[in-house]
Fold this protein.
Amino acid sequence: MEFVVRVLMNIFGKDIETSEKLMLEVHYNGRAIADAMPLERAEFKVEQVHRAATLEEFPFKCTIEPFLLS
């Protein structure tokens, strides 16, 4: 749980309160939306998350989902 909060704060720039809320959403639902951004930036963020997870040996997955405006 601490790893997820750190990722949200350090990579996605979230504050502690938002990070903890999103971490609990991941914990209970298996997923959460961290942010909406252009594809190129999202790809970079995913790389950063996966690199951090590998370094700290956490089985953590970050994916990009299409964001459609209605």
Q: What stands out?
A: The chain is about 55% helix and 0% strand.
